[in-house]
Automatic annotation (TrEMBL):
Signal peptide: none annotated. Catalyzes the hydrolysis of ATP coupled with the transport of calcium. Keywords: Acetylation, ATP-binding, Calcium, Calcium transport, Calmodulin-binding, Ion transport, Magnesium, Membrane, Metal-binding, Nucleotide-binding, Translocase, Transmembrane, Transmembrane helix, Transport. Its main location: membrane. It holds the Pfam family Cation_ATPase_C. Its EC number is 7.2.2.10. The keyword ATP-binding applies. It comes from Sesamum alatum. InterPro entries: ATPase_P-typ_cation-transptr_C, ATPase_P-typ_cation-transptr_N, ATPase_P-typ_cyto_dom_N, ATPase_P-typ_P_site, ATPase_P-typ_TM_dom_sf, ATPase_P-typ_transduc_dom_A_sf, ATPase_P-type_domA, HAD-like_sf. NCBIfam families: ATPase-IIB_Ca (TIGR01517), ATPase_P-type (TIGR01494). It is a multi-pass membrane protein. This is Calcium-transporting ATPase. The lineage of its organism: Eukaryota, Viridiplantae, Streptophyta, Embryophyta, Tracheophyta.
Length: 1043
């Protein structure tokens, strides 16, 4: 036996002696040696028991997880040769003893027995090669191996709708189908009568025109759908805090892998399925999974299971990720659900009603035209190009009759196509899609389309202070110990026992963390909320706190997490060395002061806190608050044995009779553009109210700096109140005073909700900003909920309509400007399109009744439809916000969509077009001495050019200078240019397709001169005054309320 062992050891020495000239990294050399050591040691041990090794080749795991796996692997090795892949080991071999399906089933079934059999959280973390404190220690290659072994944290989505889907949707339009039938009949009869070479023009032209309309509509819808998918992906890409290599860091939820240690706090979304490691008071809202509204308490013993997609309702903790992506319950569920961009906004609903009503008028006109044309045809009152009667009773061939009837039907149906302003919903879709894209660049992500429109009507904005009006860059600038201000070198005079208590209160009563980095210039990295980071950096860098030593010396017995109701957090600690215990509290200065009966001075002496002393501390707090500092107090209390046992059993922390440790003031300067943004909102007729949890003095100072309060405003005029005061008002008092209030300090989320409800009852359109979980009710109650992208919790974001990505109030003002722009752009397009509708219907109807023919053919009308519906929508719906938008008052909830000014503009232009085109129709041949075909071309060309010139008028509904800022809108100019080029092609080159004749320079000049008259008419008509009362109200028709 000893001889065999010696032989094996000698063999190991030979194998370990790797020549230096081989290009093998040190890491791979170590892996080689570890593999060979495992193999040879196992062989030596097995040989003692006389086991024979099997002869086959197999790759060997370089880092075996346990001795059993070693024996199994070794038994498969040949005594003669062994192949070891030291460069690219398979990913599965690293986790050969981990079954993903078992882990997934363990969490889904909430199996405590199964968890115990696998060695609890510690056993599973060891199998996943995770340190529960340090996280995973993998490099990029290691992360990729985990993704290969367990999958990525993404879920399969239903396939996106293809372009073909939208083409099929466009074909479902009944008018389009009728036109296609007419085109098919016209094509058939034309080919039969004139042969394929000449007979396809009429029917083929309608086919091509319909194809163009369908193509443009389908491509537009397809692009909008793709944009919605992109925005949806961005909105679901949330940041998650994990521990990797001992360092807290934020990564994308899509980068989470099995084995990650994730840090959870109030408002976070659980990013994957996993197991609870440690934490305090962790409660999870599982209603998205189970439908139950009650919060579930998560702990290590009874319920350690966490599910992807659920929300943290209270407390904080760490979890070990066991399943990601499609292996989670949430992933399986979400793979069957797709968010639809078909959400109909209120404005779209109103426009659909308007479209339906205009369509009915168009249908009635088309029916009358159809009847008149059929009667005139069958009574012999229509003549062909040679002046002969088209219908001569029995002498007329059946084919000719059918062909004529099909032409009449096609003309009537085309009138319906032109009359129905289907471009209105398209214009809304385009302007919303365009504004969403541009708002994204302006740091605002739209989650609900309706918010784009509603924001334009906002009359009041209720905003937070911290991070929205201020920069959220906290720094401790004041430190009071007792009644002494400690600055600079004075910190060294703090008594050691007081310093120790401060270290405990700061280092253990926190949700932040400190990481000592060799890379960072300061040597430390701080994570957590801005307040936590500021206090931790102050304690580490100025008070010389060693957070690792503090954590080693003390055990946390109980924790009360911070919430916006109590505005404090507490922790119960026990010293490991002697078992003594302390309760520590941290929070809003005046609230912590109210819990104290004593205070520490700089020498470490404890002094009683009588009314006189309490008043002095209140003055210190007020002084810091007046300097716009956020005041935080620290207090503690020794807890004796009996009290410790009872408090530990009940899970509570002593919160009375405390000793005040210290007061700190944190500076958070106002954002540079906040004051200007507030002034912009006020200039636009929008009231700005600040609702904050801060001290009333801090709130008043910041409100003055930002322009919410004027510098000379009296302190007792009712514009500044505290939440508790507002809450105590009667319903009548609240409704009376809510208009006056500009600032509400020390408010709770319920106070914010109450404020929103009162304002809405008063008829205001309210926008509210929020970042916390408890802000969700107010965000949902408001007309527009604005959540914060940086500090906002996932719960707040999901409850909001728009996410402000940079947490800046200036972005709120930008959203307001874009909201007004959306509404204004749609009004521009309505004015433009209704002008075309009125003119086209009137011209065709009068011509059909009087002359028995329509001046515009089906193809020509379809071309006009394409210009006004799609190209017109693109040109007018993509105008950028202008300064004059913020000079108007907000649009009321019930104001008509078509204002009196719009009626004045569109009727003036429509009447001009009708009079000019009917004159051309009846007298054009005599005036210009041209043929009938040339005259019809002049009518068509003039009608199209009138719309092109009128597009300029539609840019400004009220302003006389319609060319202002036109050089900035390259898309508008591009579309005008494309329209003109295509019109020239239609008239000059596609004569057979468009049924036109080529025009000479003089005739083109006449068309342009007649059309250009739209500009002076548009200028002059704006001098006419209009009544304030909407015209529709005189009709007293409920059906027209949408107008």
């Amino acid at each position: 036996m000893s001889a065999k062992l010696q032989a094996n050891l000698k063999c190991m020495d030979i194998v370990f002696d790797i020549p230096d000239d081989l290009a093998i990294s040190m890491r791979n050399k170590k892996r080689w040696q570890l593999a060979l050591a495992s193999v040879n040691c196992s062989r030596a041990l097995l040989s003692l028991f006389g086991e024979v090794l099997a002869k086959n080749e197999r790759k060997f795991s370089p880092i075996p997880s346990d001795m059993n796996s070693i024996s199994k692997n070794v038994s498969n090795f040949s005594e003669v040769e062994c192949v070891v892949d030291i460069d690219k080991p398979p990913a599965a071999s690293y986790f050969s003893n981990v079954d993903q399906s078992i882990l997934s089933r363990l969490v889904k079934e909430k199996s405590l027995d199964g968890l115990a059999k696998l060695g609890a959280v510690e056993g599973i973390s060891a199998s996943l090669r995770t340190d529960v404190q340090q996280g995973i220690n993998d490099d990029v290659e290691g992360i990729l191996r985990r993704k290969e072994a367990f999958g990525t944290n993404t879920h399969l989505k239903p396939p996106t709708k293809s372009l073909l889907h939208f083409v099929c949707e466009a074909f479902k339009d009944s008018t389009i189908l009728i036109l296609l039938v007419c085109a098919a009949l016209s094509l058939g009869f034309g080919v039969k009568e004139h042969g394929l070479k000449e007979g396809w023009y009429d029917g083929g032209s309608i086919f091509v025109a319909v194809f163009l309309v369908i193509s443009v509509s389908a491509i537009s819808d397809f692009r909008q759908n793709k944009q919605f998918d992109r925005l949806s992906k961005i909105s679901s890409n949330i940041s998650v805090e994990v521990v990797r290599n001992g360092r807290r860091q934020e990564i994308s939820i899509f980068e989470i892998v099995v084995g990650d240690v994730v840090c959870l706090k109030i408002g976070d979304q659980v990013p994957a399925d996993g197991l609870f490691i440690e934490g305090h008071s962790l409660q999870v809202d599982e209603s998205s999974m189970t439908g139950e509204s009650d919060h579930v308490e998560v702990n290590k013993d009874q319920h350690p299971f966490l599910f992807s997609g659920t929300k943290v309702a209270d407390g904080y903790g760490k979890m070990l990720v066991t399943s990601v992506g499609m292996s989670t319950t949430w992933g399986e569920m979400m793979s069957t659900i797709s968010r639809s961009p078909d959400e109909q906004t209120p404005l779209q609903a109103r426009l659909n009603e308007l479209t339906s009503s205009i369509g009915k008028v168009g249908l009635a006109v088309a029916f009358l035209v159809l009847v008149v044309l059929l009667v005139r045809y069958f009574t012999g009152n229509t003549r062909d190009e040679n002046g002969n009667k088209e219908f001569n009773g029995n002498k007329t061939r059946v084919d000719d009759v059918i062909n004529a009837v099909v032409g009449i039907i096609a003309a009537a149906v085309t009138i319906v196509v032109v009359a129905i302003p289907e471009g209105l919903p398209l214009a809304v879709t385009l302007t919303l899609a365009y504004s969403m894209k541009r708002m994204m660049a302006d740091q605002a992500m739209v989650r609900k389309l309706s918010a784009c429109e509603t924001m334009g009507s906002a009359t009041t904005v209720c905003t937070d202070k911290t991070g929205t009006l201020t920069m959220n860059q906290m720094k401790v600038t004041k430190f009071w110990l007792g009644k002494n201000s400690i600055e600079g070198e004075k910190i060294t005079v703090i008594a050691p026992d007081v310093a120790d208590l401060l270290h405990q209160g700061v280092g253990l009563n926190t949700t932040g963390s400190v990481y000592r980095s060799a890379v960072s210039g300061t040597g430390f990295e701080f994570s957590g909320s801005p307040t936590e980071k500021a206090i931790l950096s102050w304690a580490v860098l100025e008070l010389n706190m060693d957070i690792d030593k503090v954590k080693q010396d003390f055990t946390v017995l109980s924790v009360e997490a911070f919430n916006s109701e109590k505005k404090r957090s507490g922790v119960l600690l026990k010293k490991v060395q002697d078992g003594t215990a302390h309760a520590h509290w941290k929070g809003a200065a005046e609230m912590i002061l109210a819990m104290c009966s004593h205070y520490y001075d700089a020498q470490g002496s404890i002094t009683g806190l009588d009314d006189c002393e309490r008043l002095k501390f209140a003055e210190i707090i007020q002084g810091m608050a007046s300097s716009s500092l956020r005041c935080i107090a620290f207090a503690c209390k020794p807890v004796l044995g009996g009290e410790l046992i009872s408090k530990k059993i009940r899970g509570t922390i002593p919160d009375n009779g405390l000793t005040l440790l210290a007061l700190v003031g944190l500076k958070d300067p106002c954002r540079p553009g906040a004051k200007q943004a507030v002034e912009d909102c006020q200039y636009a007729g929008v009231n700005v109210k600040m609702i904050t949890g801060d001290n009333i003095f801090t709130a008043r100072t910041i409100a003055r700096e930002c322009g919410i309060l004027s510098p000379d405003q009296e302190a007792n005029d009712g514009s500044v109140v505290e939440g508790v005061e507002f809450r105590s008002y009667t319903e009548e008092e609240r409704m009376e005073k809510v208009e006056i209030i500009r600032v509400m300090a020390r408010s709770s989320p319920l106070d914010k909700l109450l404020m929103v409800q009162c304002l809405r009852k008063k008829g205001h359109v309210v926008a509210v900003t929020g970042d916390g979980t408890n802000d969700a009710p107010a965000l949902k109650e408001a007309d527009i909920g604005l959540s914060m992208g940086i500090q906002g919790t996932e719960v707040a974001k999901e409850s909001s309509d728009i996410v402000i990505l940079d947490d800046n109030f200036a972005s709120v003002a930008t959203v307001l400007r874009w909201g007004r722009c959306v509404y204004n752009n749609i009004q521009k397009f309505i004015q433009f399109q209704l002008t075309v509708n009125v003119a086209a219907l009137a011209i065709n109807f009068v011509a059909a009744v009087s002359a028995g023919e329509v001046p515009l053919t089906a193809v020509q009308l379809l071309w006009v439809n394409l210009i006004m519906d799609t190209l017109g929508a693109l040109a007018l719906a993509t105008e950028n916000p202008t300064k004059e938008l913020m000079e108007k008052k907000p649009v009321g909830r019930n104001e008509p969509l078509i204002t009196n000014v719009m009626w004045r503009n569109l009727l003036a232009q429509a009447l001009y077009q009708i009079s000019v085109l009917l004159t051309l129709h009846f007298k054009g041949k005599d005036i210009f001495h041209v043929t009938k075909k040339v005259n019809e071309t002049l009518i068509f060309n003039t009608f199209v050019l009138c719309q092109v010139f009128n597009e300029f008028n539609a840019r400004k509904i009220e302003k006389k200078n319609v060319f202002e800022g036109i050089h900035k809108n390259k898309l508008f100019m591009g579309i005008i240019g494309i329209t003109l080029v295509l019109q020239v092609v239609m008239v000059e080159f596609l004569n057979k397709f468009a049924d036109t004749e080529r025009l000479n320079w003089r005739q083109w000049g006449v068309c342009i001169e007649i059309s250009a008259a739209s500009w002076p008419i548009g200028f002059l008509v704006k001098f006419l005054p209009v009544p304030e009362r909407p015209l529709v109200s005189y009709l007293k028709l409920k059906r027209l309320k949408f107008m």
